């Protein structure tokens, strides 16, 4: 608990009743509290509870937790191995029976509100496996260091989400012809706990919002969405930066302009329109930056992990996943000679659009010794992963360089 809850200021504005509500229960002996007493603040629950012990904590205010790549070996990522990227604090109190989703904005014919029970009853339910990847996944590879969490390559997962299509909700609510964008609003709290501030409120063009796979979801891998992943309702949009998949969803605004919520401005989730020199200070305006849409082609080696020892004359069985934003992956190759030659892998089709694809290969080594094994994916339009870190950018986004592991034979 942090002793930064200022009693005097809070009581002046809100009174003891509200204080008790904020803490989730009645404050006993509140009338005897000495003037100037600083009341400890309730922190969030432990986001690591139930998570795999090998998860990597990037920060705990807010919680940002990454999975080591070798933990992502499952075809459907279990909750205990899923990364967490939060911008604010989880809601202090969630009443599922009273939870609602409101559709509003300049381009909705009339605002409409649905209870969670109504969403489940009124609309057809769908389940999709969807890749959600942080736009800054791989940021730690950029030099000079870019601002933000220094993610390795584990801020990605592909889980199974169940809910209703956003397109069906918007059709029921009625949208105007001038709709160009949607923006979400959640009930997470700003780190300052100022209720007038949103920690994040991002969105996508209306065309992306109306895709079949864009869900308003309440289940993750067949169970209620866990607290730190957006319980009880989340917008889930595969193939784009995971930041557009709003947690603790309570409102979606249909806009007649590009959504202008928190984290839509400056260089947040934006790339320079023209290449910039490493470390260059670029004005944070629309003239110089574009919003990130579909994520680039990428692959991971999830088995084995770096440090594997291979017996002489034995083949190495490799496996992993590949994905390509809005596109599919048409080819995955591996190399043991630093990209001089490549061996094509066996590649599975995706379970559904925007799910990752599984690949595997058996490799023979010409002699004993140390090797780097590289993996490279190519998308359906012929775009391949770069073998080195791509162009530096101020936000450290979209590092899709070839994944590699080190092994020793003999």
Q: Explain this structure to me?
A:
- The chain is mainly beta and 410 residues long.
- It is 9% helix and 32% strand.
- Strands 7-6-15-10-11 form a 5-stranded mixed beta sheet. Strands 8, 9, 12, 13 and 14 form a 5-stranded antiparallel beta sheet that branches.
- The radius of gyration is 23 Å and the shape is globular.
- The termini are far apart.
**What is the strand tally?**
26
Q: Tell me the radius of gyration.
A: 23 Å
N-to-C series of helices and strands: EHEEEEEEHEEHEEHEEEEEEEEEEEEEEE
Chain-averaged pLDDT: 92
Whole-Å distance between the termini? 52 Å
Helical content stands at under 10%
Number of helices: 4
- The strand line-up of the biggest sheet is 7-6-15-10-11
Describe the SSE topology.
Elements: E1 2-5, H1 7-23, E2 39-41, E3 56-60, E4 63-66, E5 84-85, E6 100-104, E7 112-115, H2 116-122, E8 125-133, E9 156-165, H3 166-173, E10 181-186, E11 203-205, H4 206-209, E12 215-220, E13 223-224, E14 234-236, E15 249-255, E16 270-272, E17 289-291, E18 298-303, E19 308-310, E20 316-323, E21 329-335, E22 343-344, E23 346-347, E24 357-363, E25 369-379, E26 403-409
Parallel strand pairs: 6-15, 19-26
Antiparallel strand pairs: 1-2, 3-4, 4-5, 6-7, 8-9, 9-12, 10-11, 10-15, 12-13, 12-14, 16-17, 18-20, 20-24, 21-22, 21-25, 23-24, 25-26
């Amino acid at each position: 608990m942090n002793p930064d809850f200022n009693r005097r200021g809070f009581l002046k504005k809100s009174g003891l009743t509200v204080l008790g509500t904020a803490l989730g229960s009645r404050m006993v002996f509140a009338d005897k509290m000495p003037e100037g007493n600083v009341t400890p603040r309730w922190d969030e629950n432990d986001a690591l509870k139930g998570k795999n012990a090998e998860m990597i904590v990037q920060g705990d205010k807010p919680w940002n937790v990454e999975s080591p790549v070798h933990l992502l070996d499952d075809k459907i990522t279990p909750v205990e191995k899923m990364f967490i990227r939060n911008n604010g604090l989880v809601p202090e109190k969630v009443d599922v029976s009273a939870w609602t989703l409101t559709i509003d904005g300049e381009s909705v014919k009339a605002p409409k509100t649905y209870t969670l029970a109504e969403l489940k009853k009124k609309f057809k339910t769908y389940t999709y496996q969807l890749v959600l990847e942080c736009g800054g996944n791989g940021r730690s590879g950029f030099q000079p260091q870019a601002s933000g969490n220094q993610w390795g390559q584990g801020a990605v997962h592909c889980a199974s989400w169940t809910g209703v299509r956003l397109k069906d909700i918007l059709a029921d609510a009625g949208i105007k012809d001038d709709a160009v964008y949607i923006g979400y609003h959640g009930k997470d709290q700003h780190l300052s706990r100022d209720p007038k501030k949103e920690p994040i409120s991002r969105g996508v063009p209306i065309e992306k919002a109306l895709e079949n796979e864009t869900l308003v979801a309440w289940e993750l891998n067949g169970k209620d969405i866990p607290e730190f992943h957006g319980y009880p309702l989340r917008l889930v949009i595969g193939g784009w930066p995971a930041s557009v998949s709003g947690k603790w969803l309570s409102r979606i605004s249909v806009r007649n302009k590009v959504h202008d919520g928190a984290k839509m401005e400056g260089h947040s989730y934006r790339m320079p329109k023209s290449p910039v020199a490493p470390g260059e200070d670029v004005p944070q305006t629309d003239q110089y930056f574009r919003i990130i849409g579909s994520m680039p082609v990428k692959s991971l080696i999830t088995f084995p992990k770096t440090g594997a020892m291979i017996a002489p004359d034995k083949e190495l069985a490799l496996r992993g996943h590949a994905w390509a934003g809005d596109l599919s992956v048409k080819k995955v190759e591996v190399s043991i000679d630093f990209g001089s030659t490549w061996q094509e892998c066996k590649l599975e089709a995706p379970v559904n659009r925007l799910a990752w694809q599984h690949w595997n290969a058996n490799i023979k080594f010409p002699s004993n010794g140390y090797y780097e094994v590289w993996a490279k994916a190519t998308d359906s339009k012929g775009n391949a992963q770069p073998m080195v870190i791509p162009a530096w950018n101020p936000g450290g986004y979209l590092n899709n360089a070839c994944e590699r592991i080190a092994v020793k034979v003999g």
